[in-house]
Amino acid sequence: MRTPADRARISRKNGRVAFAAFATVAGMVGLSFAAVPLYDMFCRATGYNGTVQIRSAAAPGATERQVTVRFAAIIHPSIPWQFEAGQGPMTVHLGEQGVAFYRAANPTAGPVEGTATYNVTPEVVGRYFHKVACFCFEAQTLEPGQSAEMPVMFWVDPKMAEDPNTRDIRTITLSYTFFRTLADAERAGALASAGPHVGRAVR
Predict the structure, then answer these.
(1) What spatial distance separates the first Cα and last Cα of the chain, rounded to whole Å?
(2) Tens of pLDDT along 102-112?
(3) Among 66, 103, 113, 175, which is disulfide-ready with 184 (CB 3.0 to 4.6 Å)?
(4) Residues 26, 32, 33, 34: is their CA dihedral positive or negative?
(5) How would you label 142-153 residue by residue, b for 16+ Cβ within 10 Å and e otherwise?
(6) Which residue from 75, 69, 129 is spatially nearest to 101, judged by alpha carbons?
(7) pTM higher than the cut 0.85
């Protein structure tokens, strides 16, 4: 038969186990929320998965080596926009700043807010492709029937020609994908659920 001292000791032990379990679960939840931004920081720092480097510094200056940059425009099914590259392939010198344009249009009867992600292929080139300015990760709102040109300023690091993994690459593809923002999708869903009576006066 357990004495009061035994029961107190067991209770303290169970409390410590429960606390440890709670701390472990809380830590795992915290890590899951931190995983996305940490992964994004890792990709930006290393160019992993074709993530382009974002730099405010100007291009270092053109070298003799050239590379062709292609531009791809992708629309996610969540956003009812028209989206395309404003030009065909562009040949630039390594170290030379280039400027390209994308075009987006909203053919719907209501405003739509979108945001773009990007990457380059071959993925190994990501660490050498630098963007000075672009429209990525910032919400863009187009009113009904509105269109917009979105510029991208970039340069390709001359060090690409020194890397055994990239020195033979002659063509790079820069891809942008537009998504509808979560807030705008929720707003559109709420309006659709409310039906045609939204905005009518209640009699």
Answers:
(1) 75
(2) 999 999 999 99
(3) 113
(4) positive
(5) beeeeeeebebe
(6) 69
(7) no
Is residue 103 within 8 Å of 149, Cβ to Cβ? yes
- One of 3.40.50.12160, 2.60.370.10, 3.30.2010.10, 3.40.50.720 is the CATH number of 53-188, namely 2.60.370.10
55-105 per-position pLDDT tens digit? 556 788 889 999 999 999 999 999 999 999 999 999 999 999 999 999 999
Instruction: Give Cβ neighbours of residue 111 (< 8 Å, ≥ 6 apart).
Output: 141, 142, 143, 144
Instruction: Please report, for residues 16, 55, 104, 123, 159, the alpha-carbon distance to residue 128 in angstroms, rounded to integers and kept in the order given.
Output: 51, 11, 27, 10, 7
Taking the CA atoms of 80, 113, 121 and 39 in sequence, report the sign of the dihedral they define.
Answer: negative
Q: Domain ranges in the chain?
A: 1-46, 53-188
- SS3 category, 108: coil
